[in-house]
Amino acid sequence: MIELRDNINQIKDEIIFWRRDFHQFPELGMNEWRTSQKIKDFLESENIPYMTCAQTGIVGMIQGVPGGKTVALRADMDALPIEELNQVPYKSNNPGIMHACGHDAHTAILMGVAKVLNQHKQNFQGVIKLFFQPAEETVGGAKYMIEEGCMDKPKVDYVLGLHVFPRIETGKVEFTYGKMNASTDGVTINVYGKSGHGAYPHDGTDAIVIAGQIISGLQAMIARCKSPFEPIVLTIGKIEGGTKGNIISDKVVMTGTLRTLDQNQREMIKHKAQSIVEHIGLAFGTKAEIIFDEGYIPLVNNDKMVDFAKKQVESLLGEKNVEVAKQGSMGAEDFGYFLQHAPGIFYNLGCGNEDKGIVYKGHHPLFDIDEECLVYGVLLQSQLTLKLLEEKPEFC
Length: 396
Description:
Elements: H1 2-10, H2 12-24, H3 33-45, E1 50-53, E2 57-63, E3 65-76, H4 103-118, E4 125-133, H5 141-147, E5 158-169, E6 173-175, E7 179-181, E8 183-192, E9 196-197, H6 207-224, E10 232-241, E11 247-248, E12 251-260, H7 263-283, E13 287-293, E14 299-300, H8 303-317, E15 322-324, H9 336-339, E16 344-352, H10 372-391
Helix pairs in contact: 1-10, 2-4, 4-10, 6-7, 8-10
């Protein structure tokens, strides 16, 4: 442990430099070309073999002593279409694009882990895979990496991921048992009416009135057709319809998002929503339809893996610095796809610091991190990896 701390402290300035460099030159999902090249250059300088996948994604591989298990660690690389408002030396140089969710930190942390553990590859048995993933914020780059074989050859036995979190103070960590992040489905509702004069509504079919009934019906369904202990969110965020105040609207288009923490609940709500939308349309003598654009699956941690990781982190940071979330988040995270193929854990790494003004949540134009969190991230990911390779625990 002491040796790891010493190794990490020696490269602390380098880790911060990497993070700031990525922050200055953010790139959107599936277009992380500069970021990807910087990582390749780094891996080559460290003599770590790698392969490319999912367009801009990279899988590095550190081979320890032959035999043993395989641990994969993931960092997402993409930024967001946000104009940065921070006045810092490392402010984004790309107009309208910003690392407003900490993926620059995740990438720098994984590079730090790679540098440290590559120096110790004669001291552990097994393989460490390094997943530098594109497009977490958009199309779910995790799926594409998996489809191209990142979890195989050798087969991944355990997978680790983290996310910097400004709500939590730097030096602290938050674990979540079971359901951590929600599924996310795009929702489009089309209501087809019949145009007419606003003074004679009986001669038309008012798509706006029908849309209102549909919204009420869907929200009543959320309140009354599922357990109050199962969080589900159905938000209609946009409505388009009508041309003039005295004209009956002949079409309304509504778009929104559906979030659930349980896959079975997700399918149940979709089925009920379809029935409600279609039957309200029929009740008014017209057609209404709901279309789901399937997004990410729920992220569900392996509870035994959480127990294992929590114990290790408590030994490093002390019990008072390890928190357990009381409930999952309705935000989405495509790390859940990796957890379909291997037992693993995703956890939140504190990066907040009120004294430094680092209090803004992800996706905010003033989002930033306390860079001290980078050292903690490298330490925890490195220690968890070595313990998994050493103890080879079984997780059912």
